[in-house]
C-alpha cells in the first residue's frame, strides 16, 4: 500500500524568503522540505502527460483520451479591488509607503527569536477617504518688518515652488472639468466654494477658463480634424443664451445655437460642441471641410432622441 504524501503548503513569498535566507545560512529541515516539495510540484506540472497501458487498452492505439478539465482551471481569477474596501479600486488615490517602526528586512524575528523577517511583495492596504473642496486655496502670510527710524519695510521672501499666478493650471483644468465634463454650472460652483470659505465668482471662473482655452486651442483643432475622418456622425443643436455675441452688421439672424457633433470611427468617439449663430448643419459642413479627399461620405444621423442619450453618456447637460 502506497504511503500518502504529507501535504506541505507553500507560497511564492515564502519561497522568496527561503532563497534569500539560503544566501546567508544553511536551510533548516522544514525549510528544505518546503523548497523540495515546491520544485517537485513544478516539475510535475511541466512534465508532458503520458498514456498508460490501461488507457491504450480502452481507447486503442490511435484513440484519443477524453479531455478532462480541472475545475480550478475553469474559475476565472476575480479582479482585486472590488467592494467598498478594495485598495485596487482607488487607482487615482495618493500612495503613501509606511515602513515598520521597529523591524526591517533581515532582522531577527521577535516572536520566535530564531528566524529572520523579510519584506513581502504585497503590502497590507489601508484606505482612508477624506472630503475636500474641488478648489482649495492657501494663504501665505509673509512677515513684514518696519524700521522705526527710516520707515523702510522688509518683507519675507515667497516660498519656493508656489508660482507667480494666483490661479495655476490645475485651477483652470478643474473648473473646465466640472463645467464641461460634469455639467456643474459656474454659479453652482461659486456657491459651493463660498460655503467652504473660498470666494470664486462665476465671472472669475469664466475668465480663467477662457484664458486656458487659448492655450489648448491646437488640441481642439486636432480633435476637429480627427472627427472629420469619422465613419458615423451624429449632430443636433439646441438654443443657448449668450449675454453678448459679436455679429456682422449685415447679419439678420437673432438666434444663438449650441451644436453637438459626435463622430465615431476606428474604435473611439469624439464629441464636439460649437456655440454661435450657426446651426448644426452649418457647423457639420465646416467640420467636413477637413475630411480627407480619399474617404467617402460618412453616415449622418440627425436624431434628437438618440443624440440626447449620447450626450448624457458624456455627462453633458443639454436643454432640448
Please provide a written account of the structure.
The longest helix has 18 residues, at 29-46. This protein has helices spanning 12-22, 29-46, 53-59, 71-74, 169-181, 186-195, 202-215, 217-228, 280-288, 304-313, and strands spanning 144-146, 153-155, 232-239, 257-265, 268-276, 299-301. The protein has a 4-stranded mixed sheet with strand order 5-4-3-6, with helices on both faces. Strands 1-2 form a two-stranded antiparallel ribbon. Residues 65-73 and 313-320 have low confidence and may be disordered. With 320 residues, it is of the alpha+beta class. It is built from 10 helices and 6 strands, in the order ααααββααααβββαβα. Helix 6 (186-195) crosses helix 7. Among the domains are: 169-215, no CATH class; 217-245 and 253-313, Signal recognition particle alu RNA binding heterodimer, srp9/1 (2-Layer Sandwich).
Produce a short descriptive summary:
The protein has 320 residues and is α+β, with helices and mostly antiparallel strands. It is 34% helix and 11% strand. Among the domains are: 169-215, no CATH class; 217-245 and 253-313, Signal recognition particle alu RNA binding heterodimer, srp9/1 (2-Layer Sandwich).
Amino acid at each position: 500500500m502506497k504511503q500518502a504524501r504529507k501535504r506541505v503548503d507553500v507560497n511564492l513569498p515564502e519561497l522568496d524568503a527561503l532563497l534569500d535566507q539560503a544566501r546567508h545560512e544553511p536551510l533548516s529541515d522544514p525549510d528544505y522540505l518546503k523548497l523540495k516539495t515546491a520544485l517537485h510540484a513544478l516539475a510535475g506540472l511541466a512534465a508532458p502527460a503520458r498514456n498508460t497501458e490501461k488507457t491504450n487498452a480502452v481507447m486503442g492505439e490511435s484513440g484519443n483520451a477524453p479531455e478532462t478539465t480541472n475545475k480550478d482551471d475553469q474559475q476565472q481569477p476575480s479582479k482585486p479591488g472590488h467592494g467598498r474596501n478594495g485598495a485596487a479600486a482607488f487607482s487615482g488615490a495618493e500612495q503613501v509607503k509606511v515602513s515598520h517602526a521597529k523591524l526591517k528586512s533581515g532582522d531577527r524575528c521577535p516572536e520566535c527569536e530564531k528566524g529572520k523577517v523579510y519584506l513581502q511583495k504585497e503590502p497590507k492596504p489601508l484606505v482612508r477617504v477624506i472630503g475636500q473642496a474641488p478648489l482649495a486655496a492657501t494663504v501665505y502670510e509673509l512677515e513684514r518688518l518696519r524700521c522705526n527710524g527710516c520707515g523702510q519695510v522688509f518683507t519675507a521672501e515667497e516660498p519656493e515652488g508656489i508660482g507667480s499666478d494666483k490661479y495655476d493650471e490645475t485651477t483652470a483644468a478643474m473648473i473646465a472639468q466640472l463645467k464641461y465634463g460634469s455639467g456643474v454650472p459656474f454659479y453652482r460652483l461659486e456657491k459651493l466654494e463660498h460655503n467652504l470659505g473660498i470666494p470664486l465668482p462665476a465671472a472669475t471662473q469664466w475668465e480663467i477658463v477662457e484664458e486656458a482655452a487659448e492655450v489648448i486651442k491646437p488640441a481642439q483643432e486636432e480633435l476637429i480634424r480627427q472627427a472629420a475622418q469619422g465613419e458615423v456622425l451624429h449632430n443636433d443643436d439646441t438654443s443657448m443664451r449668450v449675454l453678448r455675441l459679436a455679429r456682422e452688421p449685415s447679419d439678420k439672424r437673432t438666434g444663438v445655437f449650441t451644436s453637438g457633433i459626435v463622430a465615431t470611427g476606428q474604435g473611439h468617439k469624439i464629441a464636439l460642441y460649437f456655440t454661435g449663430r450657426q446651426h448644426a448643419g452649418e457647423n457639420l459642413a465646416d467640420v467636413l471641410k477637413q475630411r480627407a479627399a480619399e474617404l467617402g461620405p460618412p453616415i449622418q444621423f440627425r436624431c434628437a432622441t438618440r443624440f440626447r442619450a449620447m450626450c448624457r453618456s458624456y455627462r453633458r447637460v443639454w436643454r432640448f
